[in-house]
Amino acid sequence: MTQTPEEIDRATRQTLDYYDRHAQQFFEGTHDHDVSQNIAALLDAIEAELPYAILDLGCGPGRDLTVFAGLGHTAIGVDGSARFAEMARALSGCEVWCQDFVKLDLPQARFDGVFANAALFHVPSAALPQVLRALHATLKPGGVLFSSNPRGQNQEGWNGERYGSYYDHATWGHFMAAAGFSELKHYYRPPGLARDQQPWLASVWRKLL
User: Which DSSP string corresponds to 58-91?
Assistant: First the structure.
């Protein structure tokens, strides 16, 4: 989809404004979600000395950031919502950066892993290549990126007040490969259900050297 910088900015700002206004409700509705399968998928794929340096992209109120820190890893969060960033710092005690995903300013070769759980689907498709390149650059050589997104048939647009892009596996793989990643595995969630009852596509990728 062709999108102007103004359209991309509107999509991200309006989505972030939604999360700022509904931060507490979001926390209450998601704080007990079990994403241990996703956390394990990232950690099991990392080939580095412990503890790992983890970037939790779209950390929200800090649920998963707290888990990574509790496991002994050096975890840093990043979220475009100022309210989420504030909540995540308070909950986890970790460093959290407030950055719009389409304007990421990340250190080079800093992290062993990037955990992007229910985050990257909010990036407009026209901006996704640059975002994935930024994540590729912030990973150390051989680092790992985990992503989980609502799957679809490559449609995108507004869902109420939030913007989203809903890819199938092939299209998501094209974006990732173009950014310099090689797929390690993918699966659908929640586990143990029929495919038509698994709305989430999870995938694990290694940064090519």
Answer: T-TTSHHHHHHHHTT-EEEEEES-HHHHHHHHHH
User: What's the one-letter identity of residue 134?
Assistant: A
171, 123 Cβ separation under 8 angstroms: no
Which two structure tokens, joined as six digits, stand for 99? 């950055």
SS3 of 120-159: HHHCCCCCHHHHHHHHHHHEEEEEEEEEEEECCCCEEEEE
Tokens (6 digits) for 101? 């995903």
Percent of the chain residues topping a pLDDT of 70:
100
Query: Mean pLDDT score of the chain, rounded to an integer?
Result: 95
| Tokens describing residue 207 | 């940064």
- What number of other Cβ atoms are within 10 A of residue 25's Cβ? 10
DSSP designation for 15: H
CA distance 148 to 64: 13
Q: pTM value? A: 0.95
| 28 — pLDDT class (breaks 50, 70, 90) | confident
Report the distance separating Cα 123 and Cα 118, nearest Å: 11
